[in-house]
Amino acid sequence: MLTLPILGQRIQREVQEAETALNDAIAKVAALTASCAQARSFPEIGATTGQATMRRLVEASQLVTQASGQIARVHGELRSLNDDRIVMVPDFNGDCPPATATATVSAVQAA
Question: What confidence tens digit (pLDDT) does each residue in 8-24 have?
Fold first, then answer.
Protein backbone atom coordinates (compact mmCIF):
# COMPACT_ATOMS: atom_id res chain seq x y z
CA MET A 1 0.00 0.00 0.00
CA LEU A 2 1.27 3.44 -0.90
CA THR A 3 1.75 5.59 2.16
CA LEU A 4 2.78 9.23 2.46
CA PRO A 5 6.29 8.38 3.73
CA ILE A 6 6.81 5.91 0.86
CA LEU A 7 5.60 8.49 -1.65
CA GLY A 8 7.92 11.04 -0.04
CA GLN A 9 10.89 8.72 -0.50
CA ARG A 10 9.91 8.16 -4.12
CA ILE A 11 9.71 11.91 -4.72
CA GLN A 12 13.12 12.40 -3.07
CA ARG A 13 14.68 9.73 -5.29
CA GLU A 14 13.05 11.07 -8.46
CA VAL A 15 14.11 14.66 -7.77
CA GLN A 16 17.71 13.53 -7.29
CA GLU A 17 17.54 11.41 -10.45
CA ALA A 18 16.16 14.36 -12.44
CA GLU A 19 18.91 16.66 -11.14
CA THR A 20 21.58 14.10 -12.04
CA ALA A 21 20.12 13.48 -15.51
CA LEU A 22 20.02 17.20 -16.27
CA ASN A 23 23.60 17.67 -15.09
CA ASP A 24 24.63 14.78 -17.33
CA ALA A 25 22.73 16.36 -20.24
CA ILE A 26 24.48 19.69 -19.70
CA ALA A 27 27.86 17.96 -19.77
CA LYS A 28 27.02 15.91 -22.89
CA VAL A 29 25.73 18.92 -24.83
CA ALA A 30 28.87 20.84 -23.86
CA ALA A 31 31.08 17.95 -25.01
CA LEU A 32 29.20 17.71 -28.32
CA THR A 33 29.51 21.46 -28.83
CA ALA A 34 33.26 21.31 -28.17
CA SER A 35 33.72 18.40 -30.59
CA CYS A 36 31.79 20.20 -33.33
CA ALA A 37 33.84 23.35 -32.78
CA GLN A 38 37.08 21.35 -32.96
CA ALA A 39 35.97 19.73 -36.22
CA ARG A 40 35.58 23.18 -37.76
CA SER A 41 39.29 23.85 -37.24
CA PHE A 42 40.23 21.36 -39.97
CA PRO A 43 40.82 23.05 -43.34
CA GLU A 44 38.66 20.56 -45.24
CA ILE A 45 35.68 21.37 -42.98
CA GLY A 46 35.87 25.15 -42.91
CA ALA A 47 35.51 27.59 -40.04
CA THR A 48 31.90 28.55 -40.86
CA THR A 49 30.56 25.12 -41.72
CA GLY A 50 27.69 24.10 -39.51
CA GLN A 51 27.08 27.55 -38.08
CA ALA A 52 23.33 26.88 -37.74
CA THR A 53 24.14 23.61 -35.99
CA MET A 54 26.43 25.40 -33.55
CA ARG A 55 23.69 27.92 -32.77
CA ARG A 56 21.26 25.08 -32.11
CA LEU A 57 23.74 23.40 -29.78
CA VAL A 58 24.19 26.63 -27.83
CA GLU A 59 20.40 27.00 -27.62
CA ALA A 60 20.08 23.38 -26.46
CA SER A 61 22.68 24.05 -23.77
CA GLN A 62 20.73 27.09 -22.57
CA LEU A 63 17.47 25.13 -22.49
CA VAL A 64 18.95 22.23 -20.53
CA THR A 65 20.54 24.68 -18.09
CA GLN A 66 17.18 26.44 -17.65
CA ALA A 67 15.51 23.07 -17.04
CA SER A 68 18.13 22.31 -14.40
CA GLY A 69 17.32 25.61 -12.70
CA GLN A 70 13.61 24.78 -12.75
CA ILE A 71 14.24 21.39 -11.13
CA ALA A 72 16.33 23.14 -8.46
CA ARG A 73 13.33 25.43 -7.81
CA VAL A 74 11.02 22.41 -7.62
CA HIS A 75 13.42 20.82 -5.13
CA GLY A 76 13.34 23.94 -2.98
CA GLU A 77 9.56 24.22 -3.22
CA LEU A 78 9.11 20.57 -2.26
CA ARG A 79 11.36 21.13 0.71
CA SER A 80 9.34 24.18 1.72
CA LEU A 81 6.09 22.26 1.35
CA ASN A 82 7.57 19.46 3.42
CA ASP A 83 8.75 21.87 6.14
CA ASP A 84 5.28 23.45 6.26
CA ARG A 85 3.51 20.14 6.79
CA ILE A 86 5.00 16.96 8.15
CA VAL A 87 8.38 15.38 7.63
CA MET A 88 7.42 13.60 4.42
CA VAL A 89 10.76 13.66 2.58
CA PRO A 90 13.71 13.32 4.92
CA ASP A 91 16.94 15.03 3.89
CA PHE A 92 19.19 12.06 4.56
CA ASN A 93 22.27 13.31 2.76
CA GLY A 94 22.03 17.08 3.20
CA ASP A 95 21.64 17.68 -0.55
CA CYS A 96 18.37 19.58 -0.28
CA PRO A 97 18.72 23.22 -1.23
CA PRO A 98 17.38 25.82 1.17
CA ALA A 99 13.64 26.37 0.90
CA THR A 100 14.50 29.72 -0.72
CA ALA A 101 16.94 28.50 -3.35
CA THR A 102 16.72 31.60 -5.55
CA ALA A 103 20.32 32.74 -4.99
CA THR A 104 21.71 29.40 -6.14
CA VAL A 105 19.34 29.15 -9.09
CA SER A 106 19.98 32.75 -10.16
CA ALA A 107 23.71 32.13 -10.17
CA VAL A 108 23.26 29.05 -12.36
CA GLN A 109 21.04 30.90 -14.81
CA ALA A 110 23.45 33.84 -15.02
CA ALA A 111 26.32 31.54 -16.01
Answer: 899 999 999 999 999 99
